[in-house]
Amino acid sequence: MARDFYEVLGVSRTANQDEIQQAYRKLARRHHPDVNKDPSAEERFKDLNEAYSVLSDPKTRARYDRFGEDFRKIPEDYDERVAAGAGGGFRTRRTTGAGGPRARYTTGFGEDFSAEDVNIEDLLGSLFGAGAGSAGVPGADQEAELPLTVEEAYKGGRRTVTLAGPSGEPRRYEVDVPPGVTDGQRIRLAGEGGRGSGAAPAGDLHLRVRIRSHPQFRLDGRDVHVKVPVSPWEAALGATVPVPTPGGGTAKVTVPASSSSGRRLRLRGEGMPNPRGANGDLYAELRIMVPPTLGDRERELFEELAATSSFDPRRTR
C-alpha cells in the first residue's frame, strides 16, 4: 500500500514549510538508527527521509499533491510541455457501461482511455511524442538535510551521510563538503535522486546544509561571533588575549584600556572561509569576569580600589 507522506510526518496537507521541517527534525531525532535501537527505527527513519525529501521541495510537493504516488513518473515541465502544444492535458468524464459508472480520461489529442486500461507511460507517450513512453521519464530531484558542526562547516572535507536512497532503502553517500559552507547552502549530488523510468536518467539529490548551534560560536553568514572572557584588570588596563577560532586554533586580539563588557573587537578575515571571495570576520565580544573567590590580598586591593575610585557604573554618562 502506498504511503501518504503527510501521514508519515504527522502533518496536515495544508502544513507550511516550517511545520514540515519541525515535524521532520523532531521525528528524525527520535528514530535515527544511531539513537533508537528498536529494530523498526531504521525503517521508520527511511520513511521519514523519503517523505521529507518530497514535501520539503515546493515543486516536488506540488507534483505529489497533484498526481499522488505516480508523481515521479510525471516530468517537472509537464505543464509547460502541455501548454507548448504537446496536448491539452487530461480531461475526465463519467460514462456508464456494463460494469456501471467509470471514469474515462481524454487527452488534448482526443485519445480516450478508461480508468481500468490507462497506462501512465502510454499516456505520456501520447502527450509528449511516440518515444516518450519507451524512453522513460527522468527521475525527480530530491532534497535532504546535511547537519554540520561549525568546525565541520569551516574545514569542509569528505563526509559520509546515511539517508534514504531513491527507493527508500538506507544508503550511504560520500559527500565532498567545500570549506566555508553556510547554513542553507545546497550541495548537489548528480544522479542520486529519484530513479527515472525506462532509459531516462535519475534525478539529483540536493543536500541542504544545516549548521548546528554551538556553545561558543554564533554565525551570521560568514561572520563568526565569540564571547571572550577577560579579567577586570585586563579590561581596565588593556591586554592582548587569545581568541578561539572555528578552525580549531587561536588568534590574538588587543583589548584597549578602559573596555567594558559587550565591547566587540573585529579580527578581519578570521571568520568562515570563502572560496569565491573575502573571508568572513571574527568578532570577539568581551565579557568581564571576576574571580570566583578572593584571596586576602585580592580583597584588600579591591577594597582599596573601591575606596579610591569615584567611578559609578550606574551613573548616566
UniProtKB/TrEMBL annotation:
<dbReference type="InterPro" id="IPR001623">
    <property type="entry name" value="DnaJ_domain"/>
</dbReference>
<feature type="region of interest" description="Disordered">
    <location>
        <begin position="244"/>
        <end position="280"/>
    </location>
</feature>
<dbReference type="InterPro" id="IPR018253">
    <property type="entry name" value="DnaJ_domain_CS"/>
</dbReference>
<dbReference type="GO" id="GO:0051082">
    <property type="term" value="F:unfolded protein binding"/>
</dbReference>
<dbReference type="Pfam" id="PF01556">
    <property type="entry name" value="DnaJ_C"/>
</dbReference>
<feature type="compositionally biased region" description="Low complexity">
    <location>
        <begin position="251"/>
        <end position="262"/>
    </location>
</feature>
<protein>
    <submittedName>
        <fullName>J domain-containing protein</fullName>
    </submittedName>
</protein>
<dbReference type="GO" id="GO:0042026">
    <property type="term" value="P:protein refolding"/>
</dbReference>
<dbReference type="InterPro" id="IPR002939">
    <property type="entry name" value="DnaJ_C"/>
</dbReference>
<dbReference type="InterPro" id="IPR036869">
    <property type="entry name" value="J_dom_sf"/>
</dbReference>
<dbReference type="GO" id="GO:0005737">
    <property type="term" value="C:cytoplasm"/>
</dbReference>
<keyword id="KW-0143">Chaperone</keyword>
<dbReference type="InterPro" id="IPR008971">
    <property type="entry name" value="HSP40/DnaJ_pept-bd"/>
</dbReference>
<dbReference type="Pfam" id="PF00226">
    <property type="entry name" value="DnaJ"/>
</dbReference>
<feature type="domain" description="J">
    <location>
        <begin position="4"/>
        <end position="68"/>
    </location>
</feature>
